[in-house]
Amino acid sequence: MPLLEVSDLRTHFRTDDGIVKAVDGVSFTVDKGQTLGIVGESGCGKSVTCLTIMGLNPKRSSIISGEALFKGSDLLSMSPRQLREIRGDDIAMIFQDPMTSLNPVHTIGRQLIEAVLLHRDVTKKQARARAVELLKAVGIPRAERRVYDYPHQFSGGMRQRVMIAMALINDPDLLIADEPTTALDVTTQAQILRLMKQLQREFGSAIIMITHDLGVVAETADDVVVMYAAKVVERANVDEIFTRPRMPYTWGLIGSLPRLDADVDRLVQIGGQPPSLLNPPRGCRFHTRCPYVMNVCRTEEPRLLPVPGADGHLQACHLDEETKQREAEKLLASTLAEVG
Amino acid sequence: MLQFLIRRVLWAALLFVSVTVVTYVIFFLAPANPERQICGGERATTACLDEVSDKLALDRPIYIQYSKFLWRLVEPTVSYAGPVPVPHPKFDLGQSFITQQSVNTIVKNAAPVTAALVFGGAILWLLIGLSAGIFSALRPRSLLDRVSMTFVLIGISAHPVWLGLIFSYFFGFKLGIAPITGYCDFFNPNEAFGCGGPLDWAHHMILPWFTFAILGSALYVRMIRANVMDTMNEDYVRTARAKGAPETQVMRSHILRNALLPVVTMLGMDIGLSLGGAVFTEAVYSLPGLGGVAVQAVNQYDLPIVQGVVVFSTVAIIVFNLIVDILYGWIDPRIRLE
């Protein structure tokens, strides 16, 4: 049994302009101790997917359907109280912006201790010891003293380490990381990713890594879900995604990775804008930007189908297998050396 | 900390001097003629006018008069606490032009009335502001929210004098549940009104408190509602929920703790400001507070009393701002003083 099995998840928001289908039929699974990367542009619904699983969307304006089975029980139909017991204990979350994700008026010790005391029946002193232990584990020097410091006394990278410590403090089975490195500078990004990988080995947690950066996926993920305009357009393990991508949007993402070897004036980009989720295009949602667009793409929505001869590789595209094979090889010949 | 205090005291002194200078200048720019008032208006004799302006030094330049005023305040004196001599500035505000009463006594008598009105009213407006503000932030656009927003609109628009008259009429005259006007001392029975003691005191203060609190609470409901709604969307609130914290704990420890920081600043300033006299409320209910004293003194060109009230309210504002600053360093670690 997978640790988390999400099937046909839909999150729709009621707004003044109409219903925004932020997540529209997303399915994936996460196995114990594995890392799943969810990739996509801003606004494609990857963050909302995870916030929905955590039950952190605004209650009144959202309409949620589907299933998210965590160890066999559905997170979406749980009472708020049951969900609270799982949140921060079995499933923990790291957010994008460490500068705003910690409460500025409490010491980081107090915030870590709060996380322990909410789920463990221990004394404050034991909780503090646990907090210090975790701060040491995430590489914060002089942790015994720094628990008494406030968030503003830490740098961005250090605050993200504190967030990771807070997420791991109750030894969760699943860690959801929502763009954990986006707000950090490049060298710090690498440190944080390395730290997360190392801690994953120590704690044995599964990770859902939400990112718009294929580089992060290549470095951390076992499986990859590519999302576009609230839907999953491709799903495969990380090697398949980088060696046999089967969806033009994925090609666009891979093609737009910055390259060091080629002497180009401009970075390659996917032309056009992501569609509005208030009123998404008919047929394939990517057809407005797809260089391979055919008539059928404008009318008929492609289903998420298995790629022949590749176990567990799913893709949603009307193009025939031959063209896909040819185009993917062409793309990879020019890019893969860089991604490595 | 010491450096901070020294800097604050110097600023306070500068503020004090500029406020009092401005009062003096305004007083002398206005076509006022205090000696004529004192000598009986139209019927004043030249002899009387000369005598008065000589005695009160009204014929001297402004800066001389102002320095005399300052000197009376800071002149070193020694008083005895038992047998121990305590040197201190004189803090003498002078005497009323009209009645020759000591201004210190006048302020000392009026200040507790205003303080009772302001602190009681502030407690009331905080209670209303906090409860209505928090609940409307939790349920925006609900019936409760709409009711409290209507209250805000009325509270901000309605003038205290009008409110006071309405309250007096309905609750005082029609329903008879509270006295219409007058003040009873908290400690000493008042011969003229024949009342006194805490109960009578509170009974007489109910309507003034409500009248005074309406404007304040309207402003605070709106401010607290906006602050709480802003803070609810902060990332650290989501972090707290992601930790599994129950809503009450999220509200108390993460939302309110942050949302109420600016309220502390506002409250300090508003209380300091109001201590200078809640003029309208005091006027409607004939409370013998600083506001009434100041209005009467301005009408009679009684500069020492006006100046006395100005000095008192300036000091009140300075002191309350200092309290807020010190308090702020304690409740907001980001600006804690090194």
Report on this model:
With 340 residues, chain A is α/β, with parallel strands linked by helices. Chain A has 2 domains: 4-225, Rossmann fold; 239-335, no CATH class. Helices cover 36% and strands 21% of the residues of chain A. Chain A is built from 12 helices and 12 strands. Chain A has an 8-stranded mixed β-sheet with strand order 6-7-8-3-9-10-12-11, sandwiched between helices. In chain A, a hairpin with a 2-residue loop joins strand 1 (4-15) and strand 2 (18-30). In chain A, helix 3 (108-119) packs across helix 4, helix 6 (156-168) runs parallel beside helix 7 and helix 10 (248-255) packs parallel to helix 12 (321-339). The mean pLDDT of chain A is 90. Chain B has 338 residues and is mostly helical. Chain B contains 14 helices and 2 strands. Chain B has helices at 2-29, 34-38, 46-55, 62-74, 103-138, 143-157, 160-174, 198-232, 235-242, 247-259, 261-275, 279-284, 290-299, 303-331, and strands at 76-81, 84-89. Chain B has a two-stranded antiparallel ribbon. In chain B, strand 1 and strand 2 (84-89) form a beta hairpin. The longest helix of chain B has 36 residues, at 103-138. The mean pLDDT of chain B is 85. The interface between A and B is medium-sized, with 28 and 21 residues.
What is the string of SSEs of chain B from the N terminus onward? HHHHEEHHHHHHHHHH
Average pLDDT figure of chain A:
90
Biggest sheet details of chain B: 2 strands, antiparallel
Hey, roughly how much beta strand do the residues of chain A contain? 15-25%
What general form of chain A does the structure show?
globular
Question: Structural class, from secondary structure content of chain A?
Answer: alpha/beta
How many extended strands of chain A?
12
**Helical content of chain B (DSSP H or I, runs of 4+):** over 70%
The CATH superfamily of the largest domain in chain A is known as: P-loop containing nucleotide triphosphate hydrolases
Oligomer state of the chains in this structure: heterodimer
**Strands ordered across the widest β-sheet of chain B:** 1-2
Strand order of the largest sheet of chain A: 6-7-8-3-9-10-12-11
CATH class of the largest domain in chain A: Alpha Beta
Largest sheet of chain A: 8 strands, mixed
In percent, how helical is the residue content of chain A? 25-40%
The name CATH uses for the topology of the largest domain in chain A is: Rossmann fold
User: How does CATH name the architecture of the largest domain in chain A?
Assistant: 3-Layer(aba) Sandwich
In terms of per-residue confidence, which ranges of chain A show pLDDT below 50 for 5 or more consecutive residues? Answer: none
Count of β-strands of chain B: 2
- Please compute the radius of gyration of chain A using only Cα atoms: 21 Å
